[in-house]
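This section describes the prediction task in plain terms. A model, or a person checking by hand, is given the sequence of a single protein chain and must write out its three-dimensional structure as a string of tokens. No templates, partner chains or ligands are provided. The sample shown here is typical of the held-out split.
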Amino acid sequence: MASYQKSESFPKTPGSAQAPWRIAVYIRLSKDDGNDESLSITNQKKIIQEYLETFFSEAFIVTGCYADDGATGTDYDRPAFQKMLRHVEEGQINCIICKNLSRMFRNYSDQGYFLENFFPRHRTRFITVSEPKIDSYLHPEAILGLEVPISGLMNDRFAAKTSRDIRDTFATKRRKGEFIGAFAPYGYEKAPDNKNALVIDPAAAEVVKNIYCWYVQDGMSKSGIARLLNSLGIPSPSAYKRSRGMNFFCPQIEKSDGLWSPRSVSAVLKNQMYTGTMVQGRQTVISYKVHDRISIPEDQWYIVPGTHQPIINESLFEKALMLQQKHTRTAPGKTYLNLLSGFVRCAACKKAMTRQKSKKAVYYYCRTFREKSKDACSKHTIREEDLLHCLLVAIQRQITRLDSLDDIRDAVRRASSQKEKTSGADAALARRKRELDQLTAHTDALYGDWKNGDLTREEYLRLKSGYLSRIRQAEDAIRELEDRQKTEAMGRSRHLIQEDPYTAFFLEQGTIEEINRGILVELVRNIYVHQKGAIEIEFRFSAPRKK
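The expected answer:
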């Protein structure tokens, strides 16, 4: 928003016996005005200046020009408008001039409040220079006539229609998966040729990837991640946008100190946009008159998958969400979560168990039983060392239920090498390779025919050019057929992996000798501790089956 102070373009009349009027000129340019030159700030200034020079016969001083650029008339949070009201209350201003009522008001009820209450109470003269022309000092009866309230009502209805049209347009764009936000999410930027499309911002996207890796795989806490980012000198999302010249500020997410916080890290970890899915419409304003934002139920959001390039995959995003739903915390000053944090629960009351160190060992106990009521639960406790040992054994037993990892690899290779018999891709590829071999042999023979005198130089070059052209065509066809086979093989591999997530994990991981946070997140949903130290493990996937 632009704010203009005392303007030298407005005339000043020397003082007289009567104290001069202390005039504030108010100007507003709305986004809804488009390219209408008649409504421009320059034109509004010109019209008001001509009025003062031609029609205002009393002594006056223009104390300032208050201009809101790009603000809606239904929003009274306009910076210049609010500043002008403060100056009225402080007695710096006793006369306000604007082009017309719509520049000042677009709300019928508020128009009545200011004209009939606020301005008279503060002894402030109000003037409009265009129809309906108002001068509350010279013609106070005009305010009570029909023209003013009718004009206010028409402005009100116009604002309502404009708001409805804009809302309908936005809804259409959201349904299509077009981005309509003022600023792209951190990690993305608006496409240079399409403001409704998102493209990856490489620098910020790398930070997003690191945040997910640190949180899900390395077991870092949100506060630990925030401290690490700050120590590396990486600006927070809002600071990053501002460093690139954007007028961005979001107090709900972070403070304006340019630093990361656990809250800003959490916002990244909860943002489904990073999976390539467009999510919009999570909030809306109460009405075109009341611009306070309210949350919208999730089933009413606009969610369109596959609208832009993902930064992280869906699986990693789901794991991050799952971890955030668990009760996890770190001790003050600690960067990493405890390995089992958020996973250990009492089998009886289903509440998270508390970790406690003693002189000899670390234990998990049921807080309900120990601290709240012995009638509400029963005694459940286990040593961390024993729990980790049992967990490792249970995971290794899951692995042994497979014949061997070699069997898995063989299964994937078989799936990848299997061809669609109906496609004829193998036969076509074999034909093209035989053709290439023949063309290469003929090309090589031409040189000998030329040297032996069987071909002239011109004949040799002409025939060679023809063969080389056919060779390039054959090579292009072979590459296309091979790419098609690779794509089909990858599709079959992905299908196998989707059917058996364990297969995918163990192919990547191999045998497991030690549990880390990444393995735990990948395989385990919850660990339930029963009485006498018995444990029950709820795995994220069903057990792998022998093939």
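For orientation: Residues 1-16, 33-38, 419-423, 543-547 have pLDDT under 50 and may be disordered.
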